[in-house]
Design brief:
5-stranded mixed sheet; 314 residues
Length: 314
């Protein structure tokens, strides 16, 4: 059985930046109120760019960083909950833009855990021999789901995309993507919902906060155990960028005091399925993680679904 590894990462955010002071002009809020509750300073908002545009930009950067060409890709997976088009799916549209020839292409919607789900399915496809090289993308235009008069949600979310190029590794090599721990609590699915033809997001903030800060750390520890690593050995921890207080609480409970912990939520807000690859790509680009470093990725949120795995840094 051949394992897989992440070869390269890429990310993209729309140029428009919406600060907390900008939001204070739209809704009854201010910088101190937002920072004290979710830790966010600003977020990026797409104007004319679609989810396909965002995903394609991130994928192009991952390909450029890898030195591979689109012609070498045979699987494209996009994690998103904000795609507008039902058909063709986002993955197929991105493949067409990139010039990927005859790939398997599908979308995954597990909301904020989507990238880790997508990464796991790509890893499984490669291990099974169904694919050799995959583009795994998380892309969201969360601004399409916002009620800009609701300060409990409009201050939280942003737009963006992140991508990973994943490929089979040589026989006998240490797995670059560890076993996934995934699941959901569907009976609590109403905690975060996006409903209707003109979708609007709503969430039970306190309920989600309690769930994330109490339930995710033990699950993340399981992902480490499956990979044969103790959390204290991690060099990086990239959780879903939901809320700075949630990120810090999980990191503390997990005991990753010596690891680089992604806190991109401060600059990007919550970008749902895009948040993990976006934050991970930035850490690598800035040189805060080195090739081969063990990094725990863990997504959680709408559903309530969760997924995570330990990967080796490209």
């Amino acid at each position: 059985m051949t394992g897989s590894r992440i070869v390269a990462l890429g990310h993209y955010q729309p140029p428009k930046v919406l600060t907390n002071d900008d939001l204070a002009k739209l809704v009854d809020t201010d910088d101190e109120w937002i920072r004290s509750r979710v830790g966010i300073r600003q977020r990026h908002i797409a104007e004319d760019e679609t989810v396909v545009d965002l995903a394609t930009e991130a994928a192009q950067k991952a390909l450029a960083n890898s030195g591979r060409s689109a012609a070498e890709v045979d699987l494209v997976v996009v994690a998103t909950c904000t795609a507008v088009e039902r058909s063709p799916n986002t993955a197929a549209a991105v493949a067409a833009r990139l010039g990927v020839k005859a790939p398997a292409a599908y979308d995954i919607n597990t909301v904020c855990s989507g990238f880790s789900y997508a990464l796991a399915t790509a890893d499984h496809a490669i291990r099974a021999g169904a694919a050799r090289r995959a583009l795994v993308i998380g892309a969201e235009r969360m601004s399409d789901t916002l009620d800009w008069t609701d300060r409990s949600t409009c201050v939280i979310f942003g737009d963006g995309a992140g991508a990973a190029l994943v490929e089979a590794q040589e026989e006998g090599a240490e797995p670059g993507i560890g076993p996934v721990v995934w699941g959901s609590e569907p009976e609590r699915g109403d905690a975060v919902v996006i409903t209707g033809w003109d979708p609007v997001i709503s969430q039970q903030g306190q309920s989600v906060f309690r769930w994330a800060t109490t339930q995710i750390a033990p699950l993340a520890r399981q992902a480490c155990e499956k990979a044969g690593i103790d959390p204290s050995e991690l060099k990086g921890f990239v959780p879903h960028q939901a809320n700075l207080r949630i990120i810090d609480a999980i990191a503390n409970r997990l005991g990753v005091t010596d690891a680089v912990v992604a806190r991109d939520v401060v600059e990007s807000g919550n970008t749902s399925a895009a948040s993990i690859p976006l934050a991970f790509s930035k850490l690598v680009e800035r040189g805060e993680l080195a090739p081969g470093d063990p990094v725990l990725l863990f997504g959680f949120g709408g559903g309530l679904a969760f997924a995570g795995q330990v990967v080796r840094c490209p």
